Amino acid sequence: MTRGVPDSCPGVLRLHEAADGPLARVRLPGGRVEPGQLQVLAEAAREVGDGNIELTSRGNVQLRQVRDAGELTGRLEAAGLLPSQTHERVRNIVASPLSGRIGGIADVHALVPALDAGLLAAPRLAELPGRVLFTLDDGRGDVSMLSGDIGVHATGTEEFALLLAGRDSGIRVSAADAVDVMLAAAHGFLDLRGGEAGRWRLHEIDNGAEQVAELLALKRGTDRVELGAAQDVPIGWLDQDDGLASLGAGVRLGSLPARTAEFIAAIERPVFVTPWRSLVITDLAEWAAEQVVRVLAPMDLIFDANSPWLQVSACAGRPGCAKSLTDVRADVTAAVESDRVLPAESNQPMHQGMPVIDADDITVAGRQHWSGCDRRCGRPRGTVTDIVATETGYRID
Question: CA 200 to CA 191: how far, in whole Å?
């Protein structure tokens, strides 16, 4: 066991005591949730939580203000959402949401259950910190940009680059060997981490990626995958390669009301929670997709890629976080709903020369992340303007 500060990442069996009550985090490997499971989550959110399902930046979900931890555990176990009581917090697997349906070089979704099963089958891997992230990228570069600890990135239909600490290690593996190599890398990370606290991620270990690569003792080439700019969030109508359609739906500030989730579950199609706090509803006939948009758009799901809601994100803020200096979600909502918004591509300088500004005077321009304190929890990767609460107003960074 690791000495010193314990791993504080929440799960279902170990809740986080947030300022507004206990918080449970439910892992969804690959972000996939079946209709029946989504219905269970919706009912749990309404009956033992605060009525909302929060989407996380790792394609997982959270329930706030959990009133009965035992009842929640039982419901999730019955739905197959808690297959292990020892490994539940280490099942952090993100995969390209559109893989196998739209574009990409290789379908990585078949690797998700295999990797999950491999994690669950190895008792030692229960010791992985809850912050360790596995990424499965189909070659389009969407989830490799998340800088996971251990990942694969398709370079051919049957070949993958092994990524360590978010970078190409030079190791190439076949599709058949990809999961075994990732699991071996996870064991290597534990070997290097030893009993030292505070080294929760591979990049926090000095030369950690290089050391893991050496432990694997696999041939390394000189070619490296060029990881490009962050991908656009899949929003709106998405034509699948098989003639069906997917719908990418943005969720305001990543908080999905239980009632809306029940409507989505009733569609009876696989749903993927993305690491951008959005949803992809898959395998729809054209007529069905049209009906879904008509029903769900009035329920505040976002199918317009130009919506200002897709420009903003926020931490929990008050009352959910005791460290927050203000209710940032209320402030950013007011900014969007009062039309203090410039086009997403606007390069207009914001509030130059004003170190602190009142929330009512802030304009949404480009991607912004609003934070209740300097920790900036939940901040997305990439170029983002930080709107940080202070004792006297917001600071624009």
Answer: 13
Contacts of 59 (CB under 8 A, 6+ apart): 28, 30, 31, 94, 97, 272, 273, 274, 275
Band of residue 1 on the pLDDT scale cut at 50, 70, 90 = very low
**pLDDT over threshold 90, residue 352:** no
Which segments of 163-207 does DSSP mark as H helices, in order? Answer: 178-193
Closest listed residue to residue 150, CA positions, set 174, 126, 131: 131
Give the Cα separation of 346 and 114 in Å (integer). Answer: 44
Task: Count CB atoms within 10 A of the CB of residue 230.
Answer: 16
CA distances from 77 to 9, 40, 72, 261, 392 (A): 20, 10, 9, 19, 46
- The alpha-helical segments, DSSP class H, found in 8-60 are 35-48
When mean pLDDT is compared across 285-289, 352-356, 380-384, the lowest value belongs to: 352-356
Residue 388, strand partner residues: 371, 395
Q: Is the dihedral of CA 376, 130, 135, 201 positive or negative?
A: positive
Respond yes or no on whether the N-terminal peptide bond of residue 35 is cis (omega within 30° of 0).
no
pLDDT exceeds 90 at position 175: yes
- Residues 8/16, Cβ–Cβ less than 8 Å: yes
Type of residue found at 1: M
Angle at the Cα of 248 from the Cα atoms of 24 and 175, rounded to 5 degrees:
80
What stretch of H or E contains 328? helix 328-337
Phi, psi for residue 264 in degrees, rounded to 5: -65, -45
Alpha carbon distance 293, 295 (integer Å): 5
From residue 123, how far is each of 126, 152, 232 by CA, in Å?
6, 23, 38
| Amino acid at site 183 | L
Is 70 exceeded by the pLDDT of residue 16? yes
Q: Which two tokens stand for residue 163?
A: 């990524």
DSSP, collapsed to helix, strand or coil, labels residue 152 as strand
Please state whether 171 falls in left (phi above 0), alpha (psi between -120 and 50) or beta: beta
Enclosing H/E stretch for 213: helix 208-216
Residue 101, helix vs strand vs coil: coil
Average of per-residue pLDDT values in the chain: 93
Would you say residue 196 has pLDDT above 80? no
pLDDT at 343: 66
